[in-house]
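Side project, low priority. Logging it here so it doesn't get lost.
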Amino acid sequence: IITEAELAHWLATTDAELTFIGQRPNLAARSAETTTTVTYCTKRVGTICGGSCTVYTGGAACLDANGTACLTATKDVGLCDETECDGNCNILSLCGTPLASGFCFTPNTRSILVSPL
């Protein structure tokens, strides 16, 4: 889990290919209490997360994340090994393999559960 400032820095400095879904992150103006930004990517090289990344900003949702290798978020999210936020799920705050810039290695993630809280 990373702060909004850390996410803004990563977005500004990454060479990853970014796709935005949901609201476009406006970290200075949005209400942090009602939205979560999740960034999930297709490649891990050493401790770096990158490749093609999707950036979701919004409220409660189940995100299709097949092919995810690593991710980070501004709030805790669930990581599931089946589509539709089903199957075995873990939470980001219990990351077993932390990576650089606040990312977590999350192999076999097929969907991500964003909480309304």
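Brief comment: The beta strands are 17-22, 36-45, 48-58, 61-73, 77-82, 86-91, 104-114.
Revisit when time allows.
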